[in-house]
Specification:
It is found in: Nucleus. There is one protein chain. The protein is α/β, with parallel strands linked by helices. The protein contains eleven helices and 19 strands. Helix content is 24%, strand content 18%. The chain binds zinc ion (ZN).
């Protein structure tokens, strides 16, 4: 896609439309409460959490879009000044609350930006996501796949979250006299905590800001900030350390659990416990052959160790909100991209996904572009009303909208286009809620 049209999780480049996949900080760098460049498209949950992360943000700039619906933008190619229609669909990313992928189509072909995502192909919700994606693609291959390559290495071989969550529960149950601390981020791992709470019939302590987030997500009676009500505490990841646990154990027997796709690492200081060498070492039996048989009779068939203990007080459990290597492969085989790029470039372990999966790209089958279809079918392939949905959040207008109406007008982004023609309109059509998903 030509630069200057659309930006996803990038906030420093000039574009006509901006998209936010989710609210983790590494996807919002450059975004601030004073943002005024153009509207931002995001999911409903992300919009709900947005003011908490960006107080005083002009919320009229948020455009809520719903998963499984096509939306349409009228933009202008910067190189030719010719008008083009960019259509997009949000799809569940199963990463953290509110996280979505964005599928784009237009004169540039088909493009998918996964953001961070977990593709547990055997879970019920992932099956739904798979159906949504395949229905949207309608047999087209992707021209470009922007892939969450966080764990794009065969060494990253971890089980579904349901399996890892049970491991966490088992650890807690096997330490009935201990206090428990679990390292989490400011968003994510809610399902793990809910499962612990449900199975062990206990509340879980979180820090005050995290409690507000939990309440925004609708979890009102499960979490608490009173330490006297529970022995299980979810603590900020940055405060999870050996020093912390050593100190806690001077007062009360305490273990720490770190749920992550990367084994929790100690600093390489004394040599004996130097774990840095294990960073790319699988802790599970290497999968043989096809990855399609990960589950057998509902059970994870690999001979995994139940828990990888790394320190006398610390358990590292492979509970990940990112896809493991095998899941990435399954996903790429499903969407058959012509080309592919990794979205994570700053990691010290960055691996270009083409290195491992380049053989799955390209292929001999010519891509049936949208524009080809339009020629063949005389426009009938264009997005039709039943699939469309307005992404205008409310009747509130943005500052630039107001300027436009008074004839003063903003000069950047899609609103400038509105001045010139009918608008970078988000094409509004009638639609029925059950038009696409089934
Ligand atoms: Zn994330």
């Amino acid at each position: 896609m030509e630069k200057g049209l659309v930006s996803v999780d990038r906030w420093t480049e000039g574009s006509q439309a901006y998209f936010l996949t989710h609210l983790h900080s590494d996807h919002t760098q450059g975004l601030s409460s004073t943002w005024s460049r153009a509207p931002i498209f995001c999911s409903r949950i992300t919009a709900k959490l947005f003011p908490f992360k960006f107080p005083d943000f002009n919320l009229s700039l948020l455009r809520v879009v719903d998963v499984g619906f096509w939306y349409s933008l009228s933009l202008v190619f910067p190189s030719s000044a010719s008008r083009t229609t960019v259509e997009f669909m949000p799809i569940h990313a199963h990463h953290c609350p509110g996280a979505v992928m964005f599928l784009f189509r237009g004169d540039f072909g088909w493009m998918l930006y996964t953001g961070d995502f977990r593709w547990e192909a055997n879970s019920e919700r992932a099956q739904l996501g798979r159906t949504t994606l395949l229905n949207a693609l309608k047999g087209h291959r992707l021209d470009v796949l922007h892939l969450d390559n966080t764990y794009c290495n065969p060494s990253y071989d971890f089980p579904p979250r349901s399996v890892a969550a049970q491991q966490v529960v088992d650890i807690i149950v096997s330490h009935p006299e201990h206090d428990i601390i679990i390292g989490i981020d400011t968003l994510g791992k809610e399902e793990l905590l809910l499962r612990i709470s449900r199975l062990l019939k206990t509340k879980i302590w979180v820090w005050p800001e995290r409690l507000q987030t939990m309440h925004l997500l609708g979890f009102h009676h499960i979490f608490t900030t009173k330490t006297t009500l529970t022995r299980i505490r979810a603590v900020p990841r940055y405060s999870f350390s050996i020093d912390t646990l050593e100190e806690l154990n001077k007062k009360c027997p305490t273990i720490g659990i770190m749920p992550s796709g990367v084994p929790w690492l100690m600093k390489p200081s004394d040599g004996a416990d130097n774990l840095f060498g294990s960073l790319l070492t699988s802790h599970y039996k290497k999968r043989q052959g096809s990855t399609s048989g990960r589950l057998q009779n509902g059970k994870f068939k690999d001979n995994i160790k139940p828990v990888d203990g790394r320190h006398r007080y610390i358990y590292s459990v492979p509970y990940s909100d990112h896809s493991c290597y095998a899941e990435l492969q399954e996903f790429i085989e499903l969407v058959q991209p012509i080309s592919m790029k990794g979205i994570v470039s700053s990691s010290c372990c960055y691996v270009d996904p083409v290195y491992y999966f380049g053989r799955l790209c390209g292929g001999s089958k010519p891509l049936e572009r949208l524009s080809d279809k339009q020629e063949k079918e005389d426009g009938s392939e264009r997005v039709v009303a039943p699939e469309m949905k307005s992404c205008l959040v409310s009747a509130k207008s943005t500052n630039t909208d107001r300027k436009r109406k008074t004839g003063k007008g903003g000069s950047t982004g899609i609103h400038a286009l509105r001045r010139v023609r009918r608008g970078a309109k988000i094409i509004q059509n009638d639609f029925s809620a059950d038009s696409l998903e089934s």
